[in-house]
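Still learning folds. Look over my entry:

…
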Amino acid sequence: MTRLLIDRRSLLRLGGFAGVAGLMPFARAVADPAAVALIQYFCNALIQVMRLGATTPFSQRLNVLAPAIDATFDLDRILQVSVGLGWSAMPPAQKAALQTAFRTYTIASYVNNFDSYTGQRFTVSPTTRSLSNGDQVVATQFISPAGDSHKLDYVMNRGTRGWKAVDVLEDGTISQVAVQRSDFRRTLQQGGAPALVASLQRKTRQLAGGG
């Protein structure tokens, strides 16, 4: 069964972060084919993994989706924003351990959430919306066979490696990075970077069905 990327309990835990992404001002719609093409590629990769289904070993689906995750997302930037100000003070070895654990957890989350195919499809808007800081938003809809739709918008930043997604807006407004930052903050307060690494590794095992 395909699930939402951010469950409703996570949205309720979001607290003060809720709706922040929705307050970011949009300029007029523009056409940025490169940003749109990257998200179309990622959506196609998700459908490919969904078609493999739960009968395909989780590790195999993880390997299939990994290149698309790496190509689409700026995971290092997302992790740094999710960790917050404490990132700069972390020893290099802790940063490296977090980057590895976070990458695997991110891929596992998508594989777990998009785990079966019964005719679902994505639509990707051919235009992007410009944010005040120069980032672009690519709007998509995930449509069920019954015609129900779920909105997932990708915030895109153009850096030295071209366009990369730096956030996903659930229902067009709820920031996935904000949800992560709220969750990560509690773990970091309790045990620092080692606790967050252990938490991400444990969640990855759970997503893979390993308890």
Q: What stands out?
A: The beta strands are 26-30, 121-131, 136-143, 149-159, 162-170, 174-175. The chain has a mean pLDDT of 87. The two ends are 19 Å apart (CA to CA). Helices lie at 8-13, 33-52, 58-72, 75-83, 92-113, 176-207.
